[in-house]
Amino acid sequence: MQKIVAIALNTFRESIRDRVFYSLLAFALIMLAFSLVLGYLTVGDEIKIIKDFGLAAISLFGVLIAIFVGISLVYKEMEKRTIYVILANPISRYQFVLGKYLGLSLTLLVEVVVMTAGLFALCYLKQQAIPWDLFTAIVPIWFELQLILAVALLFSTFVSPFLSGLCTLAVFIIGHLTLDFKQLVANLDSSPLKMTADVLYYTFPNLEILNFKARVVHGVDIALADFLFSLAYASCYTIMILALALFIFNRRDIR
Amino acid sequence: MKKKPIVFLLIAGLFAASLYPLQTLQKRYSTAFEFEDLKYLPSGAFLKGAALSFDEVAADLLWIKTLGYFGAHAQGDRDYKWLYHLIDITTSLDPFYSDPYEFGGVVLGTELGDIDKSTEILKKGIANVPKNNKRYWYLPFFTAFNYMYYKGDNLTAARYLEIAARYPQSPPHLPLLVSRLYANTDSPGLALPFLEEMLVRADSPKIKRNLQTRINVIRVKQHILVLAAAAKQFKEHTGRNIISLDELVNSGIMTALPVEPFGGQYRLNKEGDIESSSKIESMELYHIKKSKTNKTKPLVFIEEPE
Asked: A52, B103: Cβ pair inside 8 Å?
């Protein structure tokens, strides 16, 4: 466990110094500030636009950080041959991969916390109250980021960063579309299409069930079971992907 | 040695040179470009998928574009042919967002005169906006207005107004308007269950009193309908009109005359019609009339005479 923590902290330090992280965080904060301008342009509920943009920025830039920083995690170590130095120590491969994952997971937590603080500050500025209920949307976003990060790590263990970036992005897009696709196909007679939709739906992560943003912003009641089941689903899927990544990395011949 | 200034000069020169074509293009596009692009705006269902999980942000941006589109045309040609399309997509992207429904419901009716589209948007809002939204009641309220003011359909209007009146944010006198609308239809009794429920829920004595009055008015109307039916039956049997209401009881058509709830009595007027001695006409709805031409009339139309 200590070894995993040591690698995690090291990864965290490394990624927090990454220029990509800072530039993405800066863009995210700019997007948040931009919502203020749009708020002035709208008629009616100004705070709604700020919340929408804030939550979208947390999610979008979190995904970008998970992808752009996550894909190079393992690959960079292999390319720079630093992995030999690490694995020459009494550290097993699974400890290495898990440490890497937890380190970047911590970095994403920093992103989410910074953005949430920014969003809450803006909301406080506008309505003199902190919308704590937004956490109902932010916590699932964080779980989604964990899942995307695990996918990025999985690809990172066996393909080049560019390709794994593309693949992770594809998983993110498909993950948000499978539900629509399934519903679209449900009314058709074509059974091969239905089967394809089912295969896509059950194999790819269903990220849309982690999307509580609209409901939270509009104050729609969310059943506790819905919330907990979606988190349970994300956790199971993330752990499954991590296990797959460990399996592949363990069998990989590092030269 | 002198390379640096030349490079800077070159950059500045190229930047300045790029401004000329940019401005020329801007001038060329300024006429029709902005409105032309709305034609290619895909349907809400497609955009909802394409926006991944960022539907609400897309809806916000489109909503601001809608306002810009409306504003630009309101000051110019007042031709809003894309307005419904824009509002429809915005509300498909974020179905919970109440402002576009409200705006569309009012503007499509008053500015475009397209009552069907206006009602369609409002009904979409009624189905989708969360019921705990503070402005929810406006949606059934405006729908009721469309039915009553433009279509002259008091019964449907009353049904929608009944929905609006159930929300605590709606004005307290709304239930009375509902009962008036119902009372002006062919079946005044429809208002009774609604009013009785409102009476149970009402907390101020003044509102309770008003509601009780409305209930009594409707009972009177119902009684008059029953008496008129009995009088018709009497004529079928005897071949003549009744001279007094007591004849209905004496002939065995009715077991007893109904009790007038205001304490007055039912009687025949000079024209031979049945009426109540209490003046219930003053509680009727005479000031709302069907109109299709008067567009400048303000939206607020409920006045509760005290």
From this structure: no
Q: How far apart are CA A251 and CA B274, in angstroms?
A: 97
Cα B214 from Cα B196, distance rounded (Å)? 10
Mean pLDDT of B230-251: 87
Count of pairs with CB atoms under 8 A, one residue in A, one in B? 68
Asked whether residue B131 falls in the same domain as residue B226, the answer is no
Smallest Cα–Cα separation from B89: which of B127, B54, B35, B47? B47
**pLDDT digit string (tens) for chain A, length 255 residues:** 788 888 888 888 888 887 777 888 888 888 888 888 888 888 777 888 899 999 999 999 899 988 888 887 777 777 777 777 777 777 788 888 899 899 989 989 998 999 899 999 989 988 888 899 999 999 999 999 999 999 998 998 888 888 999 999 999 998 888 877 777 777 777 788 888 888 888 888 888 888 898 889 888 888 898 899 999 999 999 999 999 988 888 887 766
Co-location of B71 and B111 in the same domain: yes
| B200 and B267 housed in the same domain | yes
Mean per-residue pLDDT of chain B: 79
Verify whether the Cβ–Cβ distance A214 to B52 is below 8 Å: no
Structural domain range at position B240: 154-306
The verdict on residue B212 lying in a domain is: yes
The separation between CA B292 and the C-alpha centre of its own chain, rounded to angstroms, equals: 15
**Residue B159 and residue B89 share a domain:** no
Task: Write out chain B residues lying below 8 Å of A208, CB-based.
Answer: 53
Long-range contacts of B70-74 (CB under 8 A, 24+ apart): B70/B107, B72/B34, B74/B111
Cβ–Cβ of B52/A173 closer than 8 Å? yes
Number of domains in chain A: 1
Domain tally, chain B: 2
Q: Chain B 4-63, CB below 8 Å of chain A: which residues? A: 48-49, 52-57, 59-61, 63
**Do B266 and B257 contact (CB within 8 A), yes or no?**
yes
Q: Tell whether B88 is within 8 A of chain A (Cβ).
A: no
| B273 is a domain residue | yes
ipTM: 0.79
CB contact (8 A) between residue B64 and residue A172: no
The helix or strand, by DSSP H or E, that contains position B275, with its residue range, turns out to be: strand B274-276
Contact A59 B55 (CB under 8 A): no
Residues B161 and B237 in one domain: yes
Domain extent for A64: 2-251
The DSSP output letter for B257 is: P
B73 domain-assigned: yes
